[in-house]
Amino acid sequence: MASNWFKRVVFYQIYPRSFCDSNGDGIGDIQGIISKLDYLKGLGIGAVWLSPVYKSPNKDFGYDISDYREINPEYGTLDDMKQLFAEAKKRDIKVVMDLVINHTSSEHRWFKEAQDPSSPYHDYYIWKDPKKDKLGREIPPNNWRSYFSGSAWEKNETTGKYYLHIFGKHQPDLNYRNPKVIEEVKDVMRFWLDMGADGFRCDVINIIYKDSFEDGTGNFTTIVGSEHYYSTEGSVRILKEIQRDVLRPYGAFTVGETTGVTIDAANRFINEGCLDTVFSFDHMATDEWRIPLFKVKYSPEKMKKSLIKWQQAVGWNALFFENHDQHRSVSRFGDVDRYHDESAKMLATVLLTLKGSPFVYQGQEIGMTNNKFKSMSEVKDIDALNTYQTMQLYGIVPPLAKKLAMNICRDHARTPMQWSSDEPSGGFSSSDSTWLPVNRNFRNINVASQLDGQDSINKYYTDLIKLRNSTNALQVGDVEVLDSHSQVLAYTRHGEETISVVANLTGKYLPAPEGLQGEVLMSNYSDDHGKGLRPFEATIYRQS
Ligand code: GLC
Ligand code: CA
Q1: What is residue 10's three-state secondary structure?
Q2: Is the preceding omega at residue 52 within 30 degrees of 0, hence cis?
Q3: Angle 257-51-306 (CA atoms, 0-180°, nearest 5)?
Q4: Which end of the chain is more exposed for a tag (fewer CB within 10 A), N or C?
């Protein structure tokens, strides 16, 4: 558990591969990150979450780790990492590492050794014998599905057994019934804490312990089998042990990425001292984009309800509208064509004034949008690529398969950061061949021009973060939800000050809630209108 610093800072998530390329190979790197720390400081950021920089064969770009104690050479060296810790510390910016311990890469030494059943590493992973179907044909041990399409089991020819992979087949799940695995993980954590990390963002941490290996129920809208591993008793127990042995002695911070987490489970993880806070995903299901066949229209009502529900039921949330797995928020919940700036600023207002720890994802602070990928050959996300293939196996023609794959494609958030209007790559790299294409709107949407602009989204973020950083009520005050139209979010934060926020979640004119007055501290419209709410209008008031 960390002391309370995480309740006062604004976090910024860096996806290193796409943040800043210092050596012109088209791939972001650690020196690139170091070169932008002053920019983050200027934005008012107090902590950074670094997506994985560890050695990885990149099937899932760092979420498949082949060595927990090495830096992927594309990103730099351990010395670069030490320098990053030191430079961040100088600027009073905490560094939170990604901890990916549900699975390793199949290239990890442990997994290579594990294929010998007599090796002590065999039991680091989850192996089961095949089953037979009614016709006597061999089938996987159960019907669980992988997050990335297909069965969650892969046959290993060397052993004749199947191993479990909740994610890609190159991401075998570790066996948390083996105490040695837990000890290994603790050692890895100590290694990074000793080097200077302030905590961890714990990847899919609520699924590490599988309760049983029974068949799952569920259908195409859920992950079949997940009821046997979502937020189990075993995961609570293991997290408590890790807190006791590692996190508490170091005073280290943790935010759990908790997939499919319920309010009850979130409260258990937080209140029983497993994790400082968790990322929950209900509000990301307000447009159901994860189900490739059904791209449902975004529902502002659902967004409002979900945010309120979690604000009221959970003491300390991790707040976000974007990360490296999600589509760009202004493209999902805003209106890129008609109200790009207004809607991006409205989302910023909500993100930075609700109760909890806000996480800004790189590029969100300039309103970066989804990308128009010309063809599947530009796409690198394993989830989208597998979906594309699976759809075609079901007989769907390639153009439609592409459309469906793009509905879930995570590369929308992973195109390179747009630093400037410079050719060839928007200031991200000196090379014109970057690992993912730079969004062609970089000439209009980029950091440099927004730093100069008076009314820019970036300026708005900077002002808003400054306001939050200096306002007790916005940092730690209680939240009271105010009555308002079903598509308008309005609340008051009570602390040393009384601050009210109203946000129109739509591109329509809507009635303002009654009786909201006071000094306007910030608004995404410069003039006072006085007649209800304009499209995506958001205002922050100080109540006297
Ligand atoms: C988490 C990560 C995602 C990754 C998956 C498997 O959801 O955020 O990027 O693919 O876990 O590690
Ligand atoms: Ca590079």
Answers
A1: coil
A2: no
A3: 35
A4: C
For residue 283 the two structure tokens come to 């509000």
Contacts of 110 (CB under 8 A, 6+ apart): 104, 121, 124, 125, 184
Q: Using one digit for the tens of pLDDT, what is the confidence trace for 460-508?
A: 999 999 999 999 999 999 999 999 999 999 999 999 999 999 999 999 9
Using the CB atoms, write b or e for 269-279: b if 16+ within 10 Å: bbeeebbbbbb
Q: Which atom of ligand 1 is closest in space to residue 382's alpha carbon?
A: 10
What is the torsional sign of CA 338, 340, 342, 348? positive
| Cβ proximity of 402 and 411 under 8 Å | no
Q: Which residue's entry shows tokens 């105010």? A: 482
Nearest ligand 1 atom to alpha carbon 103 = 12
Q: Are 493 and 499 in contact (CB under 8 A)?
A: yes
Ligand closest to 25 (CA) is 2
Ligand 1 neighbours (beta carbon < 6 A): 60, 63, 100, 167, 203-204, 257, 324-325
List 257, 341, 411, 537, catalytic entry = 257
> What b-and-e string marks burial along 224-250, b requiring 16 or more CB atoms within 10 Å of the CB?
bbbbbbbbbeebbebbeebbeebbeeb
Ligand 2 centre from 103 Cα, in Å? 27
Q: Which among 203, 322, 342, 383 is annotated as catalytic?
A: 203
Give the tens place of pLDDT for each residue, 195-251.
Answer: 999 999 999 999 999 999 999 998 767 899 999 999 999 999 999 999 999 999 999
Report field, pTM of the whole predicted structure over 0.90: yes
Pairing of strands 538-542, 498-504: antiparallel
Other C-beta atoms closer than 10 Å to the C-beta of 187 total 12
Catalytic residue flag (residue 107): no
Residue pair 149/387 in contact by the 8 Å Cβ criterion: yes
